[in-house]
Hints:
Elements: E1 5-10, E2 18-19, E3 22-23, H1 35-65, E4 93-95, E5 99-102, E6 105-106, E7 113-114, E8 120-125, E9 131-132, H2 135-151, H3 159-178, E10 183-184, E11 200-202, E12 208-211
Antiparallel strand pairs: 1-8, 2-3, 4-5, 5-8, 6-7, 9-10, 11-12
Helix pairs in contact: 2-3
Amino acid sequence: MAAISSYMACTKFSMSGWIGGKREMRKRNPFSISAQQQQAAEVQEPQEEKVQEEQEVQKEKMKQQGTPLRPVEPQVNVKSKNMSREYGGQWLSSVTRHVRIYAAYIDPVTCEFDQTQMDKLTLILDPTEEFVWNSETCNKVYSYFQELVDHYEGAPLTEYTLRLIGSDIEHYIRKLLYDGEIKYNMNARVLNFSMGKPRVLFNHDGQPQDVQ
């Protein structure tokens, strides 16, 4: 399957710093701690280390199982909103070759673009169809995307945060390619092998067997 696919996830990013499409600058308050507080903190450190170790073990288990998908409920009669030029300050996105992330609800059928729903992130995977995908590999990317969205919970909703997520997904796609889970689409319109030249496997007769 070399078709374009998409996935939407709800976010819990912080939008409190946005006023009229502009970032609100806040003063940073200094932080200090007394000697008694520092001693009490040192006593609590062993307990905190145990908690951190348990959390790391749980995270390792979650990584092996993959983050469960929590897609957004499909909507009907979606119309494009906030697409005019005066709303340009709210166009939050991260666009790379294989990953496009928009802070909006995009109808997967009609492609209507509702940018009033900035609490949702839409991921468009491999729009140029450079790789061959199946449902399993697509879900792996979507699961990793959901994991990143959960990881950045509470972070400011900015293009920088979206670029961090998009960059991590690009690295994950490269890993899938090198592990042989996906391969280049040799029927793509343009063959530029953006993640490295393909590896050709030969069988015992010296004939090419597969391309990755």
